[in-house]
Amino acid sequence: MKFDVLTLFPEMFEAVKQSILGKAIEKELIKINLVNIRDFSKDKHKKVDDTPYGGGAGMVIRPDVVYDAYKSVYEEDAKVIYLTPQGKTLDQKKVEDLSKEKHLILLCGHYEGIDQRIIDKIVDEEISIGDYILTGGEIPAMVLIDSVSRYVEGVLSQESIKEESFSNNLLEYPQYTRPEVFEGEKVPEILLSGHHENIENWRKEQSLKITKQKRPDLLENKI
Ligand code: 4G1
After folding, report:
1. Quick one: pLDDT band at residue 223, thresholds 50, 70, 90?
2. How far apart are the CA of 135 and the centre of ligand 1, in A?
């Protein structure tokens, strides 16, 4: 799966090239192609933004520069996603759907946003990661890449996939590791029993209890 990211801050994406995704990139299961919108400025000072028509604070990204950046990566089968607070909030259902795409072009805003005409012209879908104010769409794009990549064939171990399908829509049961006693607190006895079936049942029980307590909405809205 290929992600083209149209951004003014490509350096921010070094973070997702680590860890599990780093391995997926090495194995060529996913490709993250960073496109610096600024490279498409025709201005001698590499300017990409300008003041908003009608007045008001801040700067707006010009549509022509974004269009040229887009044309440098566009393919017929690509789906263009604009990360914006105006989009529908990303959930696991949407993540799974997106993982079936071959090619995503992710557009990240900055400043006061991007000229509406280019949004209307090239964007297929608007997605938000939640309701809070951010300085740009880069972190949302990384959230999307991370969550979607997990579903790409070969990225996760078989074990993780099995574990996940069984715990669908539940929060995770509590985990413990060594030492057996920490500051006087002992690990639950059942986990030391070696009785796999009892342990599995205990964990299911814990997951359900914690979900009911902390996130009952997860049980109501099946994802
Ligand atoms: C109005 C949050 C503005 C922010 C209302 C989640 C937030 C992209 C996202 C903003 C952004 C609310 C996102 C706001 C995002 C232009 C550049 C938009 C940054 C920008 C609730 C700033 N999911 N925010 N405006 O944060 O891009 O995807």
Report:
1. low
2. 7
Q: Are 210 and 125 within one domain? A: no
Q: Quick one: which atom of ligand 1 is closest to the CA of 127?
A: 28
β-bridge partners, 118: none
Same domain, 32 and 136: yes
Longest dimension (CA), the chain: 71
| 12 Cα–ligand 1 center, Å | 17
Q: Residue 36 has what pLDDT?
A: 98
What is the number of the ligand 1 atom nearest to the C-alpha of 131?
21
Span from the CA of 97 to the centroid of ligand 1 (angstroms): 23
| Mutational test site, ligand 1, from 6, 8, 82, 84, max ligand atoms within 8 Å of CB | 84
Q: The domain that contains 111 carries what CATH number?
A: 3.40.1280.10
State the Cα–Cα distance between residues 156 and 180, nearest whole angstrom.
Answer: 30
DSSP string, 39-107: GG--STT---EEPPTT--SS-EE-HHHHHHHHHTT--TT-EEEEEEEEEEEP-HHHHHHHTT-SEEEEE
CATH code for position 168: 1.10.1270.20
pLDDT tens-digit profile of 152-170?
Answer: 999 988 778 767 776 778 9
Number of CB atoms found within 10 A of residue 50's CB: 12
Closest CA to 20 of 140, 149, 141, 137: 149
User: pLDDT band for position 5 (50/70/90)?
Assistant: very high
Closest alpha carbon to 25 in 159, 145, 137:
145
